[in-house]
Amino acid sequence: MIVKNVIRQGYPFAEAIASSLPVCDEFLISDGYSDDGTFEMLQKIASLNKKVKLSRTEWEKKDLTVLADVSNKLREQCSSDYLFYVQAAEVVHEDNVKMLRAIPDLFPETETFSLPFVSAVANLKIEEEFRLRACKNLDRLNLTGDAWAFSVSKKFIRSEALHSLRRPKKLLRYVGRGIEWTFASSFNTLRSKAVYLPKPIFRYPALFKANYIERCKGHIEYLNVPGYRDVIRSIEQEEGEAFFEKVRQLLSGSLGVHYCGDFGVLKTEDHPRIIQEFITKRMTVPRYYVRDSVLDTIAKA
Question: In CA terms, which of 88, 152, 170, 174 is 20 to 30 Å from 235?
Fold first, then answer.
């Protein structure tokens, strides 16, 4: 996990850590020199559980690819045979722990695993998808884009492309498979599989209004999107449930997803237990904070 000022931005990072610790033998966290109390809280978390390994890395670029750069530096410190990548807004459902730990034994020949995710603005769905977030600890695999998923490294792609030039059948297979995976990927090969879990992994881009507005304003320096300031002003004007619905419409609409009726609503009991209190109190709690109960869970994990 990589973080930078996640308390100010309202990422449920403590819940993400607490829910992931039962899956992992070690949990690596890199802080980007936060100035909002995030690093101090992480120091406390690391003191509570020896699995947590904390470091700091300067974020040198001002675009979203810095997330992959910092994540890949962090993964170089991992000594385990398998990697499971979790972002600060992502909470693992307690029903998934047993299955996640069993994946290496269930699929010993498979190198990469796509897992189910659901993104939600509090109790409103944004989208559901598979993300390639678990893999064997192989040098040719790293985080890509804004660190949304694992992929093969550019160095490995160049190497394979050059070697395939001397083997026309291999080149043709790469080209054919590339087109197939672009337009009709099955996520089901010997090397890479989609694995269904009892529940999806939950992503929470927005839990509280004040935090989300703060986060959007902080992203201005990373996003070159025309009219982004106008979008922020439009959601600032919304109050109560209208705010969450407005954010859901903006985020899901940009992804081509349009939930209607009950299809787009998550019941409180559907969420991981560790986050349910925030879902029920989203209208009364002004900002994210790290609860003592979550620290207790981390200490016992």
Answer: 88
Q: Which residues of the chain are modeled with pLDDT < 50?
A: none
Residues in the chain, total: 301
Domains of the chain: 1-147+185-301 (3.90.550)
C-alpha distance across the termini of the chain, in Å = 17
Instruction: Provide the pLDDT for residue 156.
Output: 77
Evaluate whether 286 touches 211 at the Cβ level (below 8 Å): no
Distance separating alpha carbons of residues 170 and 155, to the nearest angstrom: 18
Q: Which two tokens stand for residue 232?
A: 């922020």
In eight-state DSSP terms, residue 200 is P
Cβ atoms 212, 206 nearer than 8 A = yes
pTM of the predicted model as reported, rounded to 2 decimal places: 0.91
Please report, as a single letter, which amino acid is at residue 49: N
Q: What type of residue sits at position 2? A: I
Task: For Cα atoms 54, 296, 284, give the angle at the middle one, nearest 5 degrees.
Answer: 100
Name the DSSP letter for residue 19.
H
Owner of token pair 């959601």:
235
pLDDT tens-place string over residues 134-190 = 999 999 899 998 999 998 887 877 777 777 777 777 766 666 666 656 555 566 778
